[in-house]
Amino acid sequence: MIRRRYVVGGAASITPERAPARTVSVREDVRSIMLTRYGGDLEMNLNLFLRPGDAQRELKMKLDAQKRALESALIDIGYETLMKEGIRLPDAIVRSNPAYLNASTQGGATDAAERIMVHQLFGAMAKQEYPITNLMASAKVRFFVFLEAVHYW
Asked: For the segment 69-94, what is each residue's pLDDT rounded down to a tens digit?
């Protein structure tokens, strides 16, 4: 079970004396996810351990190959999960940026999302020679930075 808590509301505004002000509340999303274990086994020639340098090189080579295979599986799972469960990028930017808080309360969040989509996201597509490949590579790098932050946390 994955629980995500977040604050809703809370824009400060001028409030008359003895009148109720805007309410800040906490919402919680709960999702159920089935975890799957990925891995692989190593098979080593035990006689090779009579030559420790050779055994160390072979073990490192096999572990590096497994690490690359697991990273590839993780990237595939991450992209699949993002496409299946992620929210649209303009919506995420509007929700995460406090500058758009007042726009969302006044109905201007849609306009803000359109501006973001046209000027920022499609602007990145117009600048690059191979935009999809470059944006995917950028997402991959940021995904790995996120995973390392989670790992160390």
From this structure: 888 888 888 888 877 877 776 677 67
